[in-house]
Amino acid sequence: xxxxxxxxxxxxxxxxxxxxxxxxxxxxxxxxxxxxxxxxxxxxxxxxxxxxxxxxxxxxxxxxxxxxxxxxxxxxxxxxxxxxxxxxxxxxxxxxxxxxxxxxxxxxxxxxxxxxxxxxxxxxxxxxxxxxxxxxxxxxxxxxxxxxxxxxxxxxxxxxxxxxxxxxxxxxxxxxxxxxxxxxxxxxxxxxxxxxxxxxxxxxxxxxxxxxxxxxxxxxxxxxxxxxxxxxxxxxxxxxxxxxxxxxxxxxxxxxxxxxxxxxxxxxxxxxxxxxxxxxxxxxxxxxxxxxxxxxxxxxxxxxxxxxxxxxxxxxxxxxxxxxxxxxxxxxxxxxxxxxxxxxxxxxxxxxxxxxxxxxxxxxxxxxxxxxxxxxxxxxxxxxxxxxxxxxxxxxxxxxxxxxxxxxxxxxxxxxxxxxxxxxxxxxxxxxxxxxxxxxxxxxxxxxxxxxxxxxxxxxxxxxxxxxxxxxxxxxxxx
Length: 479
Ligand code: SAH
Ligand code: F3S
Description:
The chain has helices at 34-48, 73-92, 104-109, 111-116, 132-140, 188-192, 200-212, 244-248, 253-263, 281-289, 306-311, 318-331, 350-363, 380-384, 391-414; strands at 24-30, 52-54, 63-68, 98-103, 122-124, 145-147, 170-174, 176-177, 196-197, 217-221, 229-230, 251-252, 268-272, 296-298, 336-343, 367-372, 420-428, 435-439, 445-449, 458-466, 470-478. The protein is of the alpha/beta class. A hairpin with a 5-residue loop joins strand 18 and strand 19 (445-449).
């Protein structure tokens, strides 16, 4: 999750999205979750209408926008370092450059940014991107500008994203914004506001448009996708007040998946992220019904201890989680399952940690993202619980589960040896210019000789070897 991708370092097809009449240059950089990367595409689209083309060169930018992440303290530190870098470039090379902070840090720190960081001209929260043209006009006139108002309606359903840094094959489609779950460690409900769902019609139009433009795989995005619910607009929590008609025609996540899968039967569909408490068996059954819905569920559990799960306000027990895992495996035996885990949550004892280890042993995840607890100001845990697990203990526990996950990944990856998997080619392998790299339905990376295949092809690959996370094989036919 904290993997940092500099959007401007890649982007071979970026040029295709540029408008000839646009004269000003935008350098846009994203940190954090997929939602931020998807939001940056919305921002780039709004800015294109304001006369900006994206550039990969910081030194020539008229405007730098950094889409930020607040999920852990380290993520915020990374952004602060980038701000120092922009500052240096502005001072030494490009004095006319303006800098804007977008996303979760903008929302969390608000005006503090303008006061503390003299370099920042513009602060825009995740729900205020449509206000960018007005804010920019303020900045052009030499004033600082800020909008961090969170919305109950904004879904950007009517903004057609400019695909940044695209491989032309895979794309994100955001379907919900915000989160109502209030996990006690998590800053997202504070920075991204209340949960709202996007009109399925606009989702469908985006999916169809992507297919027509040659995309072969989409990932439906939300902080908590399984909670998707469209009944004509409005917050999820107000659904109880909906009319009978609205209730009868409501679209939930299982239905949305089905609509997308049927509309584009050759397009692969993924989704992320699922909170176990909201993932229903309807969704799993819909996955089983459609070949084009990928057989992978990212199912963060955060801890294996019932006491810690409760303190985190995760609304399920470890036993209920096992039941869900068993059901997924019964309905889709080949389904890959991945995790997010936090170690060192306040009060976590060695016993609690052992429960996390034994939960991992039970599930044997395909892969996972593991973190040490980072106290976030303003969250329930931040306000009410002391961050009392020593740093060395957190680090040791983290290392233990990272090692364990590696063993499990290897076991899971090896299950594919001597089988044939369908791979969608995304890019050249980083390790060899003679090999393609793509992913299987289970989201496992697979590399194989290029032969006559090309990016965007679905290829049946005979798996002959593997590392802990990558399958190695030979293309045997287009699939
Ligand atoms: N539902 C979200 C989760 C967002 S945060 C999603 O779409 O992925 C991603 C992961 O960061 C969480 O699952 C959790 O494991 C981790 N995380 C969140 N807050 C954290 C904190 N305060 N300290 C450490 N890790 C945290
Ligand atoms: Fe955060 Fe929990 Fe929502 S981890 S994004 S509050 S599901």
